[in-house]
Design goal:
Elements (H helix, E strand, L loop, with lengths): L3 H9 L11 H10 L1 H16 L17 H8 L5 H8 L9 H37 L1
Helix pairs in contact: 3-6, 4-6
InterPro entries: DUF4186
Pfam family, one: DUF4186
Protein name: DUF4186 domain-containing protein
């Protein structure tokens, strides 16, 4: 079993998966509700949309935008059972265990936290550049 870091590294090399990133509205939402609430949403989305043996509309159940976790699901190949099977070997037609669900949530949150940290660094650098321009 690969670690979260190994999974994120592998995903970063995928032309498709690496194109996903959070937008300003996503960061504003995260700031407003907090990471704890985002993690709660991740857990709910995984349980409702991925955990069943045969999820409703599998392959199309995760919107491409509208919530930071939806974006994270596509970025991490945790958007449908087909992608979970292809990327992580998760068997299709079998409900996800609690452990599998938690591992998916952990990966989604790690990707989201990485995006937030990068955004914060970018904001800091931009603010520093603006301060230097005032001198």
């Amino acid at each position: 079993m690969q670690t979260i870091e190994q999974a994120l590294e592998k995903l970063s090399k995928s032309n498709f998966r690496s194109k996903f990133y959070l937008k300003e509205a996503d960061f504003s939402y995260i700031e407003r509700v907090g990471m704890e609430k985002i993690a709660q949403h991740a857990k709910e989305f995984v349980k409702e949309r991925l955990a069943p043996a045969n999820p409703k509309n599998d392959g199309k159940q995760t919107p491409m935008k509208g919530h930071p976790i939806f974006v994270a699901q596509h970025a991490t190949a945790c958007c449908c059972r087909g992608c979970l099977n292809k990327w992580y070997g998760v068997k299709m037609g079998v409900p996800l265990s609690e452990v599998q669900q938690q591992k998916i949530v952990n990966l989604l949150m790690a990707w989201t936290e990485k995006q937030v940290k990068q955004h914060m660094r970018n904001v800091f650098v931009k603010e520093q550049a603006n301060e230097n321009m005032k001198l």
